[in-house]
Predict the 3D structure of the following.
Amino acid sequence: MNTTVQNTLSKLLKLNPESTQLSTISSGHINSTWLLTHFDQRFIVQKLNTHVFKHPAQLVSNAQLIEQHLNTKQQQNNYPLDIVKHINTCNNEYLTMLNEEPYRVLNFIEHSYSEDVVKNPAQAHQAALAFGTFASALHDFDTATLHTVIDDFHNLTMRFEQLNTAMTNSNKRRLNRCKNDIEYCLSQQHLVNELKTITQHLPVRVCHNDTKINNMLYCSKTHKAKAVIDLDTCMPGFLLYDFGDMVRTFCSAEAEDSTNLDKVIIRKEIFEALVKGYLAPLQPLMSNTEQSSLLLGAKIMPLMLSVRFLTDYLNNDVYFKTTHAEHNLERAQNQLALYKNILSNESWMYKILMQ
Ligand code: ADP
Ligand code: GN1
Ligand code: MG
């Protein structure tokens, strides 16, 4: 590990760098994340990505309001999961500028692990139960107190506009590589109208907005859900997005960037377990309309991610972390394969959702 980084991060907690250890955690696409160990104490240290999060203080403020709300619920025995909390750093701050970059420290959730691909229905059930429990614990949270950390984050119309802009500015080689994928995405814009119609009848709730599988932690002893993490995009929205992002990241047998497209298909038993886990805490709060809207989320999210990955590919990979030149294109094609598979399985998915 780079000793300069280790010195810098140790400084955040006034620790002697010689008695700390640092390792990189690379599962997220946005922030830079490290595990900082000091004897038996462990901390998560994150450098927030200011290209993505223009106002990091607002993100921390949102997360802390949610932390407090969940804390109160936990004290009333109404929230069974662990809570990720911001830790006060050297200057008595929750967000610290070091070399002009914003850092924060979180409590490390001990005895936990995250997954990038769901291995079995029990894992899907536990993860969906966790995200459902999280949403249900926030049903009485005042959404007006949250800052909009990213404008139009799940605005499909705007995502199509960003794709169109990227096409006009892109280099020809990259544009040619994904012309067909772009054409297909643009042919699916009718979903925008479906979304507009249905959302008129839905309640605005606190959404996590990034319910992908590696944003929750399992207990390494019981393998049950332990914590919902990565609260950076919690904002007012519709639950269909959270449900859709779970379907997108739990149900395929392949990781989001796999090029093994034949295997990018919805696994029925995983979908069943997901629905059961998510609805257990939420169904009592939901109308029939809201419950049935979730299926639209399952279509919207892989399509929206294809559009976002294609946009970033055309923009020369400025948003998502990539490990190789075609990474964003591979992700986009993977998500399109998943989207098409969902379209061909819609009817049984709807039956399971509504039974
Ligand atoms: P990003 O915003 O880049 O996705 P995350 O906040 O999701 O970053 O963190 C990346 C990974 O770090 C997670 O998938 C998880 O494996 C690990 N992680 C993050 N926060 C914690 C925590 N409080 N305790 C334990 N592991 C964590
Ligand atoms: C990003 O930060 P991470 O890796 O949990 C992205 C999500 C995407 C996801 C795709 C702030 O999530 O919106 O769905 O990648 N987060 C942001 O894997 O853009
Ligand atoms: Mg994450």
Observations:
- The chain has a mean pLDDT of 96.
- The first strand starts at residue 20 and ends at 25.
- Residues 25, 27-31, 33, 44, 84, 106-109, 112, 114, 214-215, 217, 229-230, 232 surround adenosine-5'-diphosphate (ligand 1) (CB under 6 Å).
- The longest helix spans residues 327-354.
